[in-house]
Amino acid sequence: MDSIAERVQTLGGVARALTDDVVEETRIARVPSGIESAVNQLRRLVDAHEFILLEARPFAREAASLGDEGTNDLIVSQVVCVNELQSWFVLRHLTAKEAHA
Q: Least enclosed by CB within 10 Å: which of 5, 32, 44, 87?
């Protein structure tokens, strides 16, 4: 996230980094209160990674179409690739956990 904030500021924008700002802006559901099973936690984690991917891919394409290689590279290498790997990794654990349940 620091890299994204730095890129926003490099391009003349203002990065919102305070916890309250992030909570106000996020569209990822908050963690439910109370005890939650590990399987449900893993499902929510995969859903969050997939949500980020659905948002990031169009941004990367738009940056590329505008000739902003720096932003495209940042989004692809640090957001898309990382979230794809994490989603796959968690999904593999979830699939194994559900198979043994």
A: 32
